[in-house]
Design a protein that fits this description.
By secondary structure, this protein is mainly alpha-helical. The protein folds into 3 domains: 89 residues; 108 residues; 85 residues, no CATH class. It is built from 12 helices and 4 strands. The protein has a 4-stranded mixed β-sheet.
């Protein structure tokens, strides 16, 4: 049996088409990192609906998006579907079995559940020590976007009510008044002469006018609500833009720090045997450099944009080199002992003399 495509899995999941791909970063089942979806974002593919419109072969043709990233996305979507199925209550009576299934309802008819304060605090804590690019997934930004959508929906609802208030409903009531006033049925109050007919018509018209005045007052109130909603939308849009600017500034700062650190690592790599590989299962798209020194193994994650600083370092398969299990504290303790060794041997002075020569 052929393996299902990503589009098949998205369709089977029942998830809304406008679900962002970055939302898969915080799911509890088979989560993916932001690095996995980064090539798709660069290609303009940001939602499940957009991803479902492209075949697996088409996705694999996108620069930087390989089979491992595609498998990670499939696992996340399949995991969400499995969790949703497991949480559905078992059917009891025959009446329950014949009731409509929520999963068969249109996507737009489903009610989205608001994020709880506990869940928002949990996601915010998850992003504290992550790289700055995770600022795009800040739950505060999501809350602002959700509020903006709710206000837009309220504006649409008010516009619909206005059309109903001044449209066919009022015209139908006036026609009914005229029909009864000019009718010949005794129950309508007509048939007693032209005076009775005119009086009845005047009374019905007065009633219609009072209703029209009430509708006009309601329309004025709705217009004010619409204006207030528009101002709120503008404020939210401004806050979203400011939050995006802060996220971009933070990301530039982190990239600059990575670049400066890479210069120092490149110097060490020129002194000791070093190789580069992609061996971190948690971040398979990040290159890792391994150095072999007299004090033991040293390793660092590198930004892909900094590989130009290592032109003479060989990139090897992940299984070629093995991490010896050292922690960050052990790594820098080894580096400190290495510096002491160089000081004791006078190697630094030799380097300085060489530079002078």
């Amino acid at each position: 049996m052929a393996e299902p495509s990503l589009a098949d899995l998205i369709a089977a999941s029942g998830l809304p088409a406008d679900t962002p791909l970055i939302a898969l970063h915080v799911v509890e089942v088979d989560p993916v990192t932001w690095h996995t979806t980064k090539p798709l974002t660069a290609a303009g593919i940001t939602t499940l609906g957009e991803a479902a419109m492209i075949s697996d072969a088409g996705l694999l043709s996108i620069t930087g998006f390989g089979a491992r990233r595609l498998d990670a996305l499939k696992a996340a979507v399949a995991g969400l579907r499995a969790t949703e199925t497991a949480e559905q209550p078992e059917t009891g009576s025959q009446d329950d079995a014949t009731s409509p299934d929520v999963s068969d309802a249109p996507v737009d008819a489903r009610e989205s559940q608001p994020m709880t304060d506990e869940r928002r605090a949990e996601i915010r804590a998850m992003n504290v020590d992550s790289c700055s690019a995770d600022a795009h997934y800040n739950p505060d930004v999501w809350a602002l976007e959700a509020a903006r959508k709710e206000l837009l929906a309220e504006v649409d609802r008010l516009n619909t009510e206005l059309r109903l208030a001044f449209g066919p409903r009022l015209r139908l009531e006036i026609e009914q008044v005229l029909d009864r006033a000019l009718g010949t049925e005794e129950a309508d109050g007509a048939g007693a002469g032209i005076v009775a007919d005119v009086q009845l018509l005047a009374d019905r018209l007065a009633t219609a006018e009072r209703r029209a005045e009430k509708a006009e007052a309601a329309a004025v109130s709705w217009r004010k609500s619409t204006d207030n909603a528009g101002l709120a939308i503008l404020q939210i849009s401004r806050e979203l833009g400011e939050a995006q600017d802060r996220a971009n500034a933070a990301e530039d700062t982190v990239r600059g720090a990575y670049r400066e650190r890479s210069h120092l690592i490149a110097f060490l790599a020129a002194l000791y045997p070093a190789v580069i590989t992609y061996s971190d299962p948690a971040n398979p798209t990040w290159p890792v450099i391994y150095l072999t020194t007299p004090e033991g193994q040293l390793s660092w994650h590198l930004a892909a944009t900094d590989l130009d600083l290592y032109p003479g370092i060989t990139i090897v398969d992940p299984g070629t080199v093995t991490w010896d299990g050292h922690t960050t504290e052990e790594k820098y303790a080894r580096l400190a002992r290495l510096a002491e060794r160089w000081t004791e041997l006078g190697a630094w002075d030799g380097l300085k003399e060489g530079e002078r020569g």
